[in-house]
Structures are given as C-alpha cells and as structure tokens.
Amino acid sequence: MFGLFKKIPVDIDDKAYSASKKSTLLRVCLSNGINIQHKCQSGICKKCAVVEHTSQGDITVLACQRIILPTQTNRFSTIK
C-alpha cells in the first residue's frame, strides 16, 4: 500500500526532481516551474520535445507523452 505513493527520481537539466508514478514529464516540468514549450499536451504540436539520455544514447521524446516509470533512468534535457 505504501509503495503506491513512492516518488520516482527525475533529472531535468542536471537538477533533481521527483515524480509520482505514471505522471508525464510535461506535468513534472510544469509542477516544478520548469519553463518548457507546450501547447496541446497531447503531442500534436510537438513543441514539448526534450532530449532523453539513455544507456543507448540520446533520443528526442515528447514530454507530454513520456510517462515517468521507476524502471527507467529518467534523465532529460530541455531544448532551448
């Protein structure tokens, strides 16, 4: 029961944040005052693109579609 509310570590622009399980990266950014471009929150406009740093290399993802999961590294850089 207590594991349902465990926060997941998220690294955005080399700063540590925490997120609830299954929240989107866009929601984490907005709730922590990180200025990230967005318009539709569904991926249609593609303004919320960020770089995700993975063990296989850097990839571009949409923050509104990237679900935060405890099994992933969750390291991102915003695109200025």
UniProtKB/TrEMBL annotation:
The lineage of its organism: Bacteria, Pseudomonadati, Pseudomonadota, Gammaproteobacteria, Vibrionales. Coiled coil: none annotated. Residues 6-80 form the 2Fe-2S ferredoxin-type domain. Gene3D superfamilies: 3.10.20.30. It comes from the Bacteria. Pfam families: Fer2. This is 2Fe-2S ferredoxin-type domain-containing protein. Signal peptide: none annotated. SUPFAM superfamilies: 2Fe-2S ferredoxin-like. GO terms for molecular function: iron-sulfur cluster binding.
